[in-house]
Design goal:
heterotetramer, A alpha+beta, B alpha/beta, C alpha+beta, A: alpha+beta, 7-stranded mixed beta sheet, 6-stranded mixed beta sheet, 20 helices, globular, C: alpha+beta, 3-stranded antiparallel beta sheet, 2 helices, binds adenosine-5'-diphosphate, glutaminase activity (chain B)
């Protein structure tokens, strides 16, 4: 493959060719969205700009269908709930203060669709992505967890998807050296063909080390570090590749680039240590991980959170494929990359730390006067945009919300009262045996034995306990507890109450370990937002969760929305996975699950 | 002056913090050693800890065995320096030919993290003197490539010379030949094992404190 | 009975984590003259004579390789 | 510049759990006529013309394969 002569679609070229047709629909943009981009720019977007807007305005990145509902979390968060929160919704991950100068950050995120396409890599890169979110707050990741949902054991895809996903979660997390301390394995027919892979990460930091993602200070340098940038995870943006472009396989063009990414946990492990050394040395002004939407996301978010503009030169980006277009470089979702803002006098020291860790680091741009994000490639300006319009001012939809009364009422009318009850001892015996063998009740050790729960030597409780308990400070014994839960069948019956039950269960699981629950994260897995009944489930679940949090006094500090979880037109059960994090002053006092006492101890049932 | 035990960090090493903590709990000073250095800093013993050095790409331990620090470890081991390889460290010692045989994919092909019982078979090595032959230790095993293999002649030699140091008390869950969990070199100063004694040095964060004995054993040996 | 070889390689546009690690290791141990290494899987199959190429390709693409991220070749020895 | 292939296979006396797993999976997906599968590694190297066979064999036997458990072949394409 030679450096091809693809003409650069520069801003100048775009101005000169206003009528050139662009494949915006293939990129997922609606007609009015495309029109709005033209209006913002006062011209047609370049290919590179179109690539940026289309990924950043996607449902996944812009939260365009959920935004109007998620605002409710903010509206219901009281001053008192905010008092321990150092960073909340909108940051890479929420941060809460846990005492003694320590803070903890945690978040759960979905990687559902990629895990169906390529179970091992999909799940692995799901873990990798959430870990980088935690690193971007300035924290050391200290534990991971993995709420998982599969179709029935005998469903067509489960035999392929389940072992691959579990191996991927383990393969990546184990290699990173992060103990896996919590999670779920749930089977239900609605997840056949659409497994849910939610990945959770917890990080710890000293409160003064909190880093937020912003690019400020004219002249400060933008440094891209970690892995090289390749053609993986480009997916949809391939439609922008030129037809004249020869691929390795000969003459067909790069029409179909894979949308999956391949993870390299070793590079990420080194990146973690490298980042922590950079933070400790005070070499970082702002930092952002590269996840979905790659450099498009990182540059536009850093720039719009800062007080100036930004210039980035794509020719400086280290590539692992030849002839990549500007649009491809900007959209690549190659894993294990971070972007930092560094003052000019610290650049050499920054690069020296990266060299020590064999981590590639390159100055790719700088913070500028003014308010534009300008990106150049081969000497030409290919992007010149107001960064906020890319990162934060995407479209917002108020989708129709409607309870499907017939469906919902029928569901609720089908009550367990009508189910046959075991009447004789032998029927009861058969029933108990059936339950013991049911996948949803059986031991999870086939899964959890594939996860390292010991690494770093701080795990006080993991699998088999109600919540994972991890020591944060060895000298004081201060630690955290974390649990995730969601019974989606309850949510289907009543999304408002069901979400509250998920919250209450996770909250109880944390409390019973002896910890004080402090904060909530969520991963809202639902069907298509274009289905009014699904939007009704979503709205109800958000309201239920937020109202529940207000009563308990624990804020939602962050989370993730995953829509379009459906097989054909059938949506999954609404699955708002809720994670609760608590603090425990002294982990030696943590309460273990199970009967640990002496013979003759009384067993007490609490509650109603 | 307290005993100084070096703990090597390669890129991708994970259990160095735990190994260092175990060394301190045993009453010694933990000295961090860096893969790229040619310097053992005059330590009295070395631990090659667990993890996924260089991602374990190619073969577990293969790339790490070529690191500059390993040249020094091999040289010092030949002069009698106590060296302990745990999990990935064991794999590295085999790849560096300090110990015979090799570690290959678990029989079940999955990563396996489980608490299990080990039997101490040889309490004469630099790292097992504080145990008595026949002791049973509860220690976590966590590895993907933990099945010990060697040709029959090597196995017979190991058995004949009492160089099998630890055996799985139950049938090896990773399919390890003759249930071998750990071995030593002919001189008894280099020991490698797949399970993780450094994760069993406190009841709070491990299944037992049975693993501490390896780290205390070496102190006795060094100060003797 | 025939011997069939299936070689499976990561697609060129997919990150070859293993090959990269080996390439870097070469530099570290001072091997010069080898500029790039790519690593894949090598399968040897014992196959009855009646099995046709199409079956072999189907087998390779469904069990031995993941077409999303890997390419493969089938060779009869 | 030459392309060199190194194939590395587990020695026959070493239990090849991966190959066995593939063999079992064949039965599950209903493929018959394939009686045994063995799995190894396939390396493709870009090598400068000056590099001789002996160097390549040394490289293969010291880095790409572990002679304790593996056999290997070197082929120039
Ligand atoms: N995918 C998973 N990853 C990690 N831990 C898990 C996973 N699934 C279940 N667990 C752990 O196994 C234990 C039992 O899980 P579960 O059956 O969901 O019980 P419960 O939700 O009642 O606590 C819990 O400690 C949970 O954290």
């Amino acid at each position: 493959m030679t450096q091809s002569q693809v003409p650069v679609d520069s801003v100048k070229h775009a101005e000169a060719t206003p009528e050139q047709p662009q494949p915006f629909r293939e990129l997922g943009l609606k007609d009015d969205e495309y029109a709005r981009i033209r209006e913002i720019l006062g011209r047609r977007p370049t290919d590179a700009e179109l690539a940026m807007y289309s990924v950043m305005w996607s449902e996944h990145c812009s939260y365009k269908s959920s935004k109007v509902h998620l605002r409710y979390f903010g509206e219901t968060t009281t001053e008192q709930m905010r008092s321990t929160m150092l960073a909340g919704i909108g940051e890479n991950a929420g941060v809460v203060s846990v005492g003694d100068g320590w803070a903890v950050t945690f978040k759960v995120e979905s990687h559902n669709h990629p895990s169906y396409v390529e179970p091992y890599q999909g799940a692995a890169t799901g873990v990798g992505g959430i870990v980088r979110d935690i690193m971007a707050m300035g924290a050391r990741p200290i534990a991971v967890g993995d709420p998982l949902r599969f179709g029935p054991l005998d469903a067509d895809d489960t035999g392929r998807v389940l072992p691959g996903i579990v191996a991927g979660v383990g393969g990546y997390g184990n290699c990173l050296g992060l103990p896996n301390v919590a999670g779920e394995v749930v089977f239900d027919p609605s997840y056949a063909g659409n497994p849910l892979v939610n990945a959770l990460c917890v990080g710890a930091l000293k409160t003064e080390d909190l880093h937020l993602a912003f690019a400020s200070g004219t002249g400060n340098k933008i440094i891209l570090f970690g892995a090289t940038t390749g053609l993986d995870g480009i997916g949809g943006v391939s439609v922008l590749a030129s037809e004249t472009f020869d691929s390795d396989s000969g003459g067909t063009g790069r029409k179909k680039l894979p949308s999956v990414q391949v993870g390299d946990p070793f590079t990420e492990k080194v990146l973690i240590e490298c980042c922590l050394e950079l933070f400790a040395a005070g070499l970082v002004v702002g930092i952002q991980d590269l996840g979905g939407a790659g450099l498009s996301c990182a540059t536009s978010e850093l720039a719009s959170a800062g007080d100036g503009g930004m210039h980035v030169d794509l020719d400086a980006v280290p590539l692992r494929a030849t002839g990549m277009t500007a649009a491809e470089i900007l959209s690549s979702e190659s894993q294990e990359r971070m972007c930092a803002v560094v003052t000019p006098e610290n650049v050499e020291a920054f690069l020296a730390v990266c060299r020590r860790w064999d981590t590639i680091a390159t100055v790719i741009g700088e913070v500028t006067d003014g308010d534009r994000l300008v990106i150049t490639s081969r000497g030409e300006t290919v992007v010149d945009v107001p960064p906020r319009t890319v990162a934060h001012e995407g479209p917002v939809y108020t989708r129709p919300v409607a309870r499907d009364d017939a469906k919902q009422d029928a569901l609720n009318a089908d009550s367990p009262e009508t189910l046959p009850r075991p009447e004789t001892p032998s029927e009861l015996r058969a029933e108990i045996l059936r339950m013991a063998a049911a996948p949803n009740l059986a031991s999870r050790s086939w899964v959890t034995d594939q996860y390292d729960r010991y690494v770093r030597g701080n795990t006080v409780a993991a699998h088999g306990a109600d919540s994972g308990v991890v020591q944060v400070d060895e000298s004081t014994g201060r630690g955290i507890a974390v649990a995730t839960d969601c019974n989606a069948r309850f949510v289907a019956l009543d999304p408002y109450v069901g979400a509250q039950l998920a919250l209450a269960e996770a909250y109880r699981n944390v409390a019973t370990s002896g910890a004080v629950p402090l904060a909530v994260t969520d991963c809202l897995n639902f069907g298509s937002p274009e289905d009014p009944h699904v939007m009704w489930q979503f709205e109800q679940a958000v309201r239920g969760l937020a109202d529940g949090c207000a009563v308990l006094g624990t804020p939602v500090t962050g989370g993730n929305v995953s829509f379009y979880n459906q097989t054909g037109t059938t949506a999954i059960l609404p699955t708002p996975v809720v994670g609760v994090l608590g603090v425990i002053d002294d982990v030696t006092t943590a309460v273990r699950s199970g009967f640990a006492g002496a013979d003759g101890d009384a067993v007490v049932l609490l509650g109603t | 002056m307290s005993t100084r035990v070096g703990v090597i960090t390669f890129p991708g090493t994970l259990d160095d913090v735990d190994a260092a903590r175990a060394v301190r709990r045993a009453g010694a000073e933990a000295v961090p050693l860096w893969h790229g250095d040619h310097d053992l800093q005059g330590v009295d013993a070395v631990v090659v800890p667990g993890g996924f050095s260089y991602g374990d790409y190619l073969r577990a331990g293969a790339i790490a065995s070529l690191a500059p620090i390993m040249t020094e470890v091999v040289r010092a081991a030949g002069r009698g320096l106590p060296v302990l390889g745990i999990c990935n460290g064991f794999q590295i010692l085999c790849e560096a030919h300090l110990l015979p045989g090799a570690l290959v994919a678990n029989a079940g092909m999955h990563f396996l993290c489980r608490d299990l019982e080990l039997t101490v078979e040889n309490a004469q090595t630099a790292w097992t003197r504080d145990y008595t032959a026949g002791d049973r230790l509860t220690i976590p095993l966590k590895s993907q490539e933990g099945r010990y293999v060697a040709d029959a002649a090597t196995l017979d030699e190991l058995e004949g010379e009492g160089r099998v140091v630890f055996r799985y008390a139950e049938p090896a869950p990773n399919g390890s030949t003759r249930d071998i969990a750990g071995i030593t070199d002919a001189a008894g100063n280099v020991v490698g094992l797949m399970p993780h004694p450094e994760h069993a040095t406190s009841e709070l964060t491990g299944p037992s404190a049975d693993g501490l004995g390896l780290f205390t054993s070496v102190l006795a040996r060094v100060t003797a | 009975m025939a011997r069939v070889v299936v070689d499976v390689m990561p697609k060129p546009e997919i990150l070859d984590v293993q090959g990269q690690a080996v390439t870097r290791a070469l530099g570290r141990i001072g091997v010069s003259g080898v500029s790039g290494v790519r690593q894949g899987k090598h399968f040897e199959l014992d196959v009855e004579d009646g099995i046709d190429d199409e079956t072999l390709h189907r087998l390779a693409g469904s069990l031995l390789a993941n077409p999303v991220i890997e390419d493969w070749t089938v060779t009869r020895l």
